[in-house]
Amino acid sequence: MRMRTRSGPVRNENTHQAILEATAMLxxxxxxxxxxxxxxxxxxxxxxxxxxxxxxxxxxxxxxCLVAGMLLxxxxxxxxxxxxREDLRQWxxxxxxxxAEPETEGMLRSLISGAAENPQIGSRIRESxxxxxxxxxxxxxxxxxxxxxxxxxxxxxIAEALIGAVVLRALSRTPPSEEDAIRLIDAVIGPELPIPxxxx
Length: 200
Fold this sequence. Notes:
HTH_TetR; mainly alpha; HTH-type_TetR-like_transc_reg; Homeodomain-like_sf; DNA-binding; TetR family transcriptional regulator; disordered N terminus; 2 domains
């Protein structure tokens, strides 16, 4: 009986990791616009054809680095204490602090530039790093804790509004503050609802 051979490129894990590490290092140093496949290949000590065998563009490479957690810090995860307003305050304050750091601000701005060219990068920023899914889930769990948090509310759109504010801050280079985070929370999810007398 004839054995069936595997078709398509076989990925060597050491080479794969070397390419991702080279991409992350050059991205942090050069930014997205100046990142090239030639530079990545040189840094990883591989041929360009090896990279193109597995990735179709530098945008795909950057997106995979995002998924692997090799670019932005993992401190962007939304906490879960059961109090959605406090969780959002901590989350936004930490994000604003992170993007105020020159190195992170430049990297995030470069990622946003890359997202304009490659939609997959934007998707990975939103889903894997800032975490639209986790934000949406936390908002749904906070029903009743804000005027706009009600059964059937547009939670995805509320999450997008919060994330959009983060992106706008990164682009505008406006120094944020904890007060800005609180005002944003009030604007997006509505003011805190009073506790009913029966629950006091």
